[in-house]
Write a structure and sequence with these properties.
With about 425 residues, the chain is of the alpha/beta class. It has a domain of about 180 residues: Alpha-Beta Complex (Spore Coat Polysaccharide Biosynthesis Protein SpsA, Chain A). It contains 17 helices and 14 strands. The chain has a 5-stranded mixed sheet. It has a 5-stranded mixed sheet with strand order 13-10-11-9-14, with helices on both faces. The longest helix has 25 residues. It is globular.
């Protein structure tokens, strides 16, 4: 297996505001409802009524365009990247995304960065297609990682630890796994401290630290596009949810006999020891797949045929994406709470890009509300979606005002406290 000697930091990013699309609304809603009903029946922590696109929609139900405090989700992600040390950002998305991007940059500027928009390929809405579209405007070297970032992480503003991670230099792919124990160390004794409700399908044993992690798939990918095989990249992304990733990787290994033979000791070790080792931490645990961290790293390196590192992190913002209506409402309730507590600039208390976002809302949103169909009556649009997906309540009253009726106040307060502390230590805040 080749070694890596990469540039020790990342200064280029591909941010995706693109998403796959279903043939029709009936099919999309059926999948969303079946998933939510199954999670409810199983008593899961994280219930998800997924926000899905469909070809026959009059208005493209693209989650990145949904409004938080009257501001598109995508603009929060853009603000995070503008406040980082990145020098180049390529935005991939729909025509409406391009329109919002143009208005955003006209309002707040580029902060010295090169920002380029590339339209999504509506005939091929895959991760590999998005990566290929995004990489074309970038002058990437063979020893350079790029950050691939989905655009639905509105409060993931602490990206410097990813861009300047010590593991970049020696690895061509780094997976930042979401660990429940690291992000919410007190969730057992203080349930309200777990202000992001998710389902964790993986179990990961860290032998060095002698601990067990409940793990969810990553949402951010530092990746060397010159060294990784695109079909495996697509496999990792497409199968990353609902506990399917490891099974998919082993299935792929079976099609690569030489690599499978090298992986056999890893698999044998897993089959011999993992279940018994897991029982020492948590007897009779149920899970979809689990592995020792060291074993996972060795197996992934063999399959990918490139230096690889998986690691856990402690930042809830990395797992807090906007995949579902529940996720959207978590953030709307959080910002509503901050505004009620601190006034109209309350967003600035919990997000270091708050001033940029509020300026954009004042400068650009009046025109966008006239030109983009989703924004003409966003409260009515979202209330209709809530009703069609059997949410049991609607987020806005008859006058279009947000009404917090679904989320426990203790969770909102816990989230607000955490983000206030986080924003106060952001480099932008310290130099403001």
């Amino acid at each position: 297996m080749p070694s890596a000697q990469n540039k020790p930091y990342i200064d280029k990013c591909i941010v995706s505001f693109s998403h796959n699309c279903f043939e029709n609304r009936r099919e999309a809603d059926q999948l969303s409802l079946e998933k939510a009903r199954r999670e409810i029946a199983q008593g899961k922590n994280g219930i998800s009524h997924l926000i899905l696109r469909a070809w026959d929609d009059d208005v493209d139900r693209l989650k990145f365009l949904f409004l938080l405090n009257g501001i598109p989700v995508m603009c929060y992600s853009l603000a995070n990247l503008l406040l980082s040390s990145l020098s180049e950002v390529v935005v991939v998305g729909s025509p409406e995304v391009g329109q919002v991007l143009e208005a955003f940059l006209k309002s707040v500027g580029t902060l010295g960065k090169r920002i380029e928009f590339v339209p999504e390929n509506r005939d091929q809405l895959t991760m590999v297609s998005t990566l290929n579209l995004g990489r074309k405007p970038l002058s990437l070297r063979s020893n350079e990682l790029v950050l691939f970032q989905p655009g639905d992480l509105p409060f993931m503003y602490d990206v410097e630890k990813v861009l300047k991670d010590a593991d970049i230099e020696k690895n061509n792919l780094v997976l930042w796994l979401n660990s429940r124990q690291e992000m919410f160390p007190d969730f057992t004794s203080e349930p309200e401290s777990e202000f992001v409700q998710r389902n964790y399908h993986y179990r990961l044993i860290d032998d060095e630290k002698k601990c067990l992690h409940d793990v969810k798939e990553p949402n951010t990918y530092p990746i060397n596009l010159e060294t990784l095989e695109t079909d495996i990249i697509e496999l990792v992304h497409a199968q990353r949810k609902d506990g399917q990733l490891i099974n998919a990787l082993f299935s792929k290994a079976l099609t690569l006999p030489h690599r499978f033979l090298r992986m056999f000791p890893v698999l044998a070790n897993h089959l011999m020891y993992f279940r018994s080792n897991l029982n020492q931490f948590r007897p009779n645990d149920t899970y979809q797949f689990g592995m020792h961290l060291n074993n996972f790293n060795r197996g992934a390196e063999i399959l990918l045929n490139t230096p690889f590192r998986a690691k856990v992190h402690n930042d809830p913002a990395f797992v807090s994406d906007v995949d579902a209506l529940e996720d959207w409402e978590d953030f709307e309730a959080l910002i509503h709470h901050a505004t009620k507590e601190f006034g109209e600039d309350g967003l600035c208390r919990i997000h270091p890009g708050g001033d940029l976002l509020l300026k954009f809302r004042e400068d650009a949103m009046p025109a966008l509300r006239e030109s983009l169909p989703m924004y003409k009556d966003f409260p009515g649009y979202l209330n209709h979606i809530y009703e069609s997906l059997e949410m049991g309540h609607v987020p806005y009253d008859s006058k279009g005002r947000y009404q917090n009726s679904a989320i426990p106040k203790s969770l909102i307060q816990s989230a607000s406290n955490w983000y206030q502390d986080k924003a106060a230590t952001h480099p932008k805040t310290l130099t403001a």
